[in-house]
Specification:
Number of helices: 0
Radius of gyration: 22 Å
Largest sheet: 18 strands, antiparallel, barrel
Helix content: under 10%
Order of helices and strands: EEEEEEEEEEEEEEEEEE
Number of strands: 18
Length: 376
């Protein structure tokens, strides 16, 4: 409750503890197409944040740790109880001309769609799996910026990410990139460069290599507006006889605070993933999500989140016929009340729906939840 623009005054040491409890009725806990099963469950979600330095603005040296376990307890289906974990470790170092940042994300899921520290209700369902599924994600991100002149700077990138599905198709990717940026205006930078990488995939999907050429725009965060955009083309090659696959890729992030009590964020993108459940297939994932929050009377928060995702499958091997296409969307209105400085309570409704050309993967899901959060 109560997101706002980043503070310009970094604290030397920061700690925070949130403790959230949710009670939820879900009319389709297995995300089934034809045989819905409903149940009530309770979610217990503490979140710990520790930090040193400029963990908000990230313009100076800092170190930050976020950890959130999530326990789900079902009333009538105790065999679906799950324990999930989100871990984020991030650090940055600046010497003036040289700026370094390194982050590590670990997501350990037993069965739930736990998306991020912000979206814990499961806005993005795993449509590739079409059901609650065990999954572990490991993502390492290294960035280095060096000022060549007052107007030009280089940015080097190294990424490593793993999607591990026990008993299904897992994959591991290492990628690197180099970009040259020009400070067009004091708060606006434009860049051009490329990214290349290699993708190891479990059998029977072949291993893959890829290259990207991208243009980028970075509007440094101000008190009211922040914008990042990247767009380009990816060329992907496959071990075997499959020809090169060429597709546009992009990423956009926008944060806007027109008034002190109003928050709007938007994210959109398009990239390629390996399917964990369709042998010999990848899919292009295109998405857009918007979040709006309005504070009323200093204590009431009205929220609305909505998003859309298209997953279009294609063959990674000449011997595979890939025709699956999924269109997924969700909407989540919410109302929260700040009772005291340290206690809030709220209610939300979540509708999720996947319209797939393969009926087995399609589903509709409705959830109604109440929650209470204590802040220390």
């Amino acid at each position: 409750v109560g997101e706002g623009p980043p503070s310009s005054q970094p604290r030397r040491f920061y700690y925070g503890l949130l403790f959230t409890v949710r009670g939820v009725w879900d009319d389709n806990i297995f995300l089934s197409h034809s045989h819905k099963t409903s149940d009530y469950y309770f979610a217990i979600e503490p979140q710990l944040t520790l930090g040193i330095g400029d963990i908000q603005g990230r313009s100076r040296s800092y170190l930050r740790l976020d950890y959130m376990p999530s326990g789900l307890l079902y009333v009538n289906h105790s065999d679906e109880d799950a324990f999930n974990q989100l871990i984020h470790l991030e650090g940055g170092y600046s010497t003036g001309r040289l700026r370094l940042s390194l982050s590590q994300d670990v997501v350990l899921l037993q069965s739930a769609n736990l998306n991020s520290f912000i979206d814990t209700t499961g806005l993005w369902a795993n449509t590739d799996a079409s059901a609650p599924t065990r999954m572990n994600i490991f993502n390492t991100r290294l960035r280095a910026e060096y000022d060549l002149t007052g107007k030009l700077y280089l940015q080097g990138e190294i990424d490593s990410y793993t999607y591990f599905y026990p008993n299904n198709i897992s994959d591991y990717t290492v990628a690197g990139g180099l970009y040259l940026y020009y400070r067009w205006l004091p708060k606006v930078s434009v860049g051009v460069g490329g990214t290349f990488g290699y993708n190891w995939v479990d059998d029977p999907t072949p291993n893959q290599s890829f290259e990207q050429v991208n243009l980028r725009l970075n509007y440094e965060v101000t008190a009211k507006l922040g914008l990042y955009a990247s767009g380009g083309v990816e060329f992907r090659q496959f071990d075997g006889d499959r020809s090169t696959y060429t597709t546009p890729v992009f990423e956009v992030g926008l944060s806007y605070y027109p008034f002190e009590a109003t928050t709007f964020t938007l994210a959109a993108g398009r990239r390629i993933y390996n399917s964990g459940f369709e042998p010999g297939q990848d899919f292009t994932n295109s998405y857009v999500i918007g979040r709006f929050q309005q504070r009323l009377f200093h204590r009431v928060y009205l929220g609305l989140a909505a998003g859309y995702e298209n997953a279009n499958y294609f063959a990674a091997d000449d011997n595979v016929n890939a025709t699956r296409d999924d269109n997924y969307w969700f909407i989540e209105p919410s109302l929260d009340l700040l009772i005291t400085r340290w206690l809030s309570t709220g209610v939300y409704y979540l509708h999720r729906e996947d319209d797939s050309n393969v009926d087995f993967f399609g589903f509709e899901d409705n959830q109604v939840g109440v929650r209470a959060t204590v802040r220390f």
